[in-house]
Request: fold
Amino acid sequence: MQQEELSHSWREEGRAIYKDRDTLKHDMDKIISLVLRDCTDGDWDEDYITRSLLANIRDCFTEVHLDEDHELGKPSVCQIQAYKNRKSNNFEANYGDIGILVRLNLGKGRILEGVALIEAKRIYTPDNGVDNVKFPHFHALEFDQLIKHVGNSSNHRVVFL
Reply:
């Protein structure tokens, strides 16, 4: 993935400085798009895509500082951890493929924590019989599964590939 395509003003070993939250969110979305673009051009491998996405999130966003907060005198630090939800204990079935934990230190002992969950679904396309479909279709998309994921989290996303 091309790190130079990101909007941070400084980055080193998972630590970065961003102008504001909007720029950070933009780059998080961009990381997902770039990883998916790089990983899905060839053969589909869900495990490789998940590992690539997690490695890039960890490399870019382990600890984030925001210029806008520092200018306001707020010593906020955003720490982000990304995990593959395992099949053991039904984490993957109940919550999706990836869990992202966010811890925002607002200073003076104030901490805000949250979680985001991601489920990835592949689209099968007519491609000379490789996927064996006549029209684009999400074979693995099960509405009961998505309803369970949304019911278990207030911040769940589905990535369609």
User: Anything to note?
Assistant: The helical segments are 21-40, 46-61, 67-71, 91-95, 143-152. Strands lie at 10-12, 15-18, 63-66, 77-84, 98-107, 110-121, 156-160. DSSP finds five helices and seven strands in the chain.
